[in-house]
Amino acid sequence: MKPLLIRGGRVIDPSQGQDAVADLLVVDGRIAGMGQGLGAPDGAEIVDARGKVVAPGLIDLHVHLREPGREDVETVATGARAAAAGGFTAVCAMPNTDPVTDNQAAVGFIVKQAQAAGAARVYPIAAISLAQKGQQLAEFGELVGAGAVAVSDDGNPVVSSHLMRMALAYARAFDIPVADHCEDPALKANGVMHEGLVSTRLGLRGIPAAAEEIMVARNLLLADLTGGHIHLCHMSTRGSVELIRRAKEKGIRVTAEATPHHLTLTDAVCEGYNTNAKMNPPLREAADVAALRAGLKDGTIDAIATDHAPHHYDAKERDFDDAPFGIVGLETALGLGIRELVQRGVLTLPELIDRMSTAPARVFHLPGGTLKPGAPGDVVIFDPEARWRVDPIRFFSKSRNTPFAGQELAGRVVRTFVAGLTVHRGETT
Amino acid sequence: MVVAGTRNALLDARGVQRALQRMAKQIVEFAEGTERLVLVGIHRRGPELTQRLARLIEAEEGVPVPRGTLDITLYRDDVGTIGPRPVVGETHLPENLDAKCVVIVDDVLYTGRTVRAALDELTDFGRPARIGLCALIDRGGRELPIQADIVGKTVRAQPGDRVDVFLQEVDGRDVVELVRGEGGGGK
Amino acid sequence: MTERFLGKDLLGLEPLTADQIRFILDTAEPFKEVSERAIKKVPTLRGKTIVNLFFEASTRTRISFEFAEKRLSADTVNVAAAGSSVEKGETLVDTARNLEAMRIDMVVMRHPSSGAAQFLADRIRSNVVNAGDGTHEHPTQGLLDLLTLRDKFGRIEGLKVCICGDILHSRVARSNIWGLLKLGAEVGVCGPASLLPLGIEELGVTVYRRIEDAIEWADALNVLRLQLERMHAGFLPSLREYNRVFGVTVERLEKAPRELVILHPGPMNRGVEIDSRVADGPHSVILEQVTNGVAIRMAVLYLLAGGRPEMAEAAKGRAGEAGE
Predict the structure, then answer these.
(1) pLDDT tens digits, residue range A322-334?
(2) Is the ipTM of this structure higher than 0.95?
(3) Chain C residue closest to A316 (CA)?
(4) Contact predicate A49/A6, CB 8 Å
(5) Is the CB of residue C38 less than 8 Å away from at least one CB of chain B?
C-alpha cells in the first residue's frame, strides 16, 4: 500500500483542537503524522490540498441502506458509494431491512457487502427486538460480536417501556448505545406532517410535537433508571432539546442527533403537497429549527446524522397521504451544513466537523473522527468555498428523493480516503 | 388612404330617431299588427333599442307590447375564445313564445353568428309562429345565410372597421359611428 | 391579458382573490335562470368531455356537478373509483395519464387525500375542478354557501358567520373560512376542542367554545355534518352528548338576539348536529344551497372551459365587433 501525503491543506481536527495549514501523512492505512513540511516517503502518493480543508472523514450515525430487501432503491454498495461522495468515511446502517438485521448472520452479511463495496465503512446497527416487533430482545452479545455497533428498532419506536428498560439495562454489558426513534404511536396516529398552522391549512393530519417529546422523556427516565446509554435519533422539537439539556445537566447517559433537514427546513416546505418534504419525524416550525441549532451549538445535540432514507421515484409520486416518509441525505449533508450552519454563523467550521465526525465517533465508540497518529486513515478533503447545484440525477445513491434539488450548496468534496485509499474523487471544476 | 381610427358619423341623434320611427312601423306591418308581436333585444344594445321601439309602437297602436331580453353568451359557438373574464348577461323572455311573432332586435348585424345563437336560444324557449330580425345597422360581412327583415341603415364596412352604437340610456347620447380599422380595413 | 382570470383549475378558495370569488358568484347569477327554464339546457359546452372522478362515495355533489354539466351540454363520464388506500396513490398517477391520453377537457375529482386535486392538476393539461380533497377544500361548496348568504343578506362583507361542528376534518369549513374572510365577513368556529384544528385562530377566525355564545354572536350558522366514525376514533364520547352540548336546536335559536340563517352542506344527521325543526324551519336555507350548487358549478365549468387567452387572441377581429 502506497503511503499518502496530503500537502498544504487547512487541517481541521476537532479531536486535537487543530486548525492550521499542515501536511498529513498516512502510512499503512493509518495516520502517521501531521506537521509543517513533512517529507514524502518513497513512492508516496502526494495530494496537493492547498486552499482546501483536510479533516477526519465524516461519520453518519443513521442511514437506511435498504439491503437486503429493497435493492431497487439502495444497496450497501451504492449507499457506501454515495456516502463517500458526500465526504463520509463511515456510516451506521439501520436494521429495518427485509429481513431485519436481528441476528449474527444478518450483521455479517452487511459487513461482507460493505467490504466488497470498497467505499465508506458500513457499521451495522442491529435490532433491539426480534423482527423489530417490540417483544423479545435480540441477542445483543452475538450481534456485537458480529460487528454491530449499536441496537435500534428504528423505523418503529420502542412502544413498550418495559422492553426499553430491559434493552438499556442489557446493553450495558456490551457498552453499546440503544438508539430510539422517539414516537408515541397513538399520538402520531395516521399523521403525515407536523401538526400546526400549515397542516391545518393543507388539511393534512398532524403529528404533534408531544408525540416525540413523550418518548424522549420516557427514554431519559429509563436511562436514568438503568444507567444505560440512550441515543435519541433525529430530534425535531424544541421541547426535546430542552428535555435532553436538563438530562445532560443531571448526568444521564444520553446522546442525541439531528438531521440536516430538521436543522434547515420547516413545515412550510410541505406547501403544495411536496412529498419530498414528508418525513418522520416531520419538519417542524422555525422555533424548533432555532432550538435544534442552539442545541447543536452547545452540545445538547451531539451529532448531525442524515437519516438517509432512499425511496423509489414513483413511491414519492403520489398524493401526500400515500407517499412514504423520508429523504436521501448523504450527498447533501456537508454542503447544507456549510451553507446553513457555518455561513450563517451557527457553528464554526471546526464545530461542524466535530458534529459530523469527531462527535459521532465518540457517541457510537467508533474508530475515526480524529487525525491522531495511529487513527484510521479516513480523511476527507473539501473545498469549503466551492458552490454547486444539487442535481439528483447525478447522485451516487440509487434514489433521488430530496427536497434540495436545484438548490445551491456551499462546500464540495474533493477527495475521500478510507484507510488511506481514495474512495471518491470529486469532479474537478 | 384612410387613417386608422377615423370616426365617421353614420347616424346622428335625429337620424337614430327617424330610423327607429320607421322601423317601428315596419315591425307592426311585419307582424301584421301587434296581437302576436313579441320584441326580444339581444345584449348589449338590443334591449335599449327594444324599449324604444316598444314605446313607439305602444304610442301608435295603444296596446302594450310584450318584450324580453336575450343573452346569447351561452349559445356562442366559440366557448374557447371567450375572453379571460367573460360576462354572462341575463335572459328574460315572456312566459310563452308559442305561436307568437317574435322580432329579434339587434344594434349591428355583421357576421350573423349572434343571430344564429339567438335563434337557437329562442327555439329552446318555445315554438314561435314566426321569427323576424330587426337591426339598426347592417354593416355587411355575413358569415352565415342570415338577413335582416327590417334595417335602420345599411353601410358597407371593411372587416377591420368597427361600428359603434351609442344610446342615450347607456352612453348619454344617440349616435352611430363607423371607426376605420388599420389600413382602412382588411386584416 | 395573457393570464386566465381564474387559472386552469379550481382547487380551493385559499388561492383565489376576493375579486375572483366575486366574479364567480356574479357569473352564477344568470345560470340560476337557466335552471328555471322549461328546457334546462344551453349548448355552451357542447363537444366538451368532462370526467367525474369520484374516489369517495358522494351522491349530492356528484349529482349537482352532473346536472351542471348536462345543462351546459357537456359529454360526461362518471367514474366511481373506490380504490383501496394502498392502491389509490398508484391509481391516481395512472388515472391522470390515462385521462390525458383520452383527450378529455375537464376532470371533476373527489378524493380522500388532501392535495389530490392539486396532484392531478399538476400532471394533466385538462382543467381540474376539486370536488373535495380529503380534509383540505371543497371550493364549489364554499362558493355556493357564499352565494346563498349573499342572496339572503345582499352582502357578505361585515356578516358574522359561525361554522359549527367538526372543523378538524372538514373541507367545507376550510373553503368557507377562506371565502368568507376574503369577502370581508367575520368568521367564528364552534365545536368541541377535540375537533378544532391546531392554530385555527391564526387563520383569522374566532373560536367559540359554547354553541350558545356562537348563536348570540352570529348572523348565520353553517352547521357541519358530524361523521359518525369520529366517535370510534375517540374524538368525542357520543352523538347524544354532542346534540345536548353542541346541537343547533330550536330552544337555543329562540334565545338568539336576531333571527339566524341556517346553512348545512348536507347530508344532515337530524337530531345530532341539527334538529329537524331547525332544518325544516323558516330560517333554513338548506334547499337554496342545493339549488345554488348547480348554478355555481355551471359558472365554474363555464369559466374554466373558456377564457383561454391564446384562443381569444386568435379570435380577435373575427368577432371583435361591438355589435357582434
Answers:
(1) 999 999 999 999 9
(2) no
(3) C89
(4) yes
(5) yes
